[in-house]
Amino acid sequence: MFDFAPTTDADKATLHADLLFAADAITRDEPDAIANMANVAALIWQYLPDLNWAGFYRMVGDELVLGPFQGKPACIRILLGRGVCGTAAQTRETQLVEDVHAFPGHIACDAASASEIVVPVVHDGRLIGVLDLDSPRPARFDAADAAGLEALVQRIADRLG
What CA–CA distance (Å, rounded) separates 12 from 19? Predict the structure, then answer.
């Protein structure tokens, strides 16, 4: 049994370090990618404040398909190059969007979302999917979030696909 809890009133760097530790520990000995995605989405939801959606889209064939997440029901399929998730998948670059309404082609699964960060999950040169976080707060995500989430994805990518 795991009992992880974010440090109360921790700064952003500490939250991301604690999240990385927890995600590494909970996925280390589990071979099932879906189970690992589910637990990591739950940890992100628990550790990072001001989110209204946190989860994964998996690369299936030539499109992204909804994976484990926390939040309201979401779009099920996203084509590469479409929206923030599809752009992150196509470019294999983190997309940090301060105002989703200003992002060309943004896909509004939840009208409450105001900002978004999407990190591609790549292992051995293969796109596994993307990690997607939304917030109802404009400009919720910054370079520290990008660095923390990129480190997280890099650490556990081999356990996600």
Answer: 10
Q: Mean of the pLDDT values across residues 125-152?
A: 97
The pair of structure tokens assigned to 109 is 């699964």
CA distances (Å), origin 109, targets 6, 8, 35, 93? 28, 31, 24, 21
pLDDT tens-digit map of 67-77: 999 999 999 99
Burial 104-139 (b: 16+ CB within 10 A, else e): eebbebbeebbbbbbbbbbeeeebbbbbbbbbeeee
Residues 116 and 97: their CA atoms lie apart, in Å, by 5
Residue 122 DSSP code: E
pTM greater than 0.85 = yes
